[in-house]
Write a structure and sequence with these properties.
By secondary structure, the chain is an all-alpha fold. 83% of the residues lie in helices and 0% in strands. Helix 1 packs antiparallel against helix 2 and helix 2 (41-79) crosses helix 3.
């Protein structure tokens, strides 16, 4: 869980950095519309590709973790069906109790 939060925080920092870089470049554009010094197309594509790779890697890792948890849950349910049913029943009762207290 802490790793996920750290990865999300890093991605937010990367996006904020990209936003700041673009904002700095936009400030340098005079009001007549001519540009002084703006990122070239290759720089922007490189930045966007790096951000995209990071996001894809993050979601790929989370998808793999979800599959592992799903497999472990299925295995536990098959090994201990009565215990699993009791836990599910208790969870349902708890949720019902919490929802009634509105």
């Amino acid at each position: 869980m802490a790793t996920t939060q750290k990865e999300v925080k890093n991605m937010k920092q990367d996006i904020a950095q990209i936003k700041d870089m673009l904002a700095d470049q936009l400030e340098e554009i005079p009001t007549n519309g001519k540009t002084k010094n703006i990122f070239n197309k290759e720089d922007l594509q490189s930045i966007a590709n790096q951000a995209g790779k990071g996001v894809r890697a993050f979601f790929s890792d989370k998808q793999k973790q979800l599959e592992e948890v799903k497999t472990a849950c299925k295995k536990t349910i098959k090994e201990r069906p009565l215990t699993s049913a009791a836990v599910a029943f208790a969870g349902g009762m708890l949720i019902t109790t919490l929802l009634r207290k509105k």
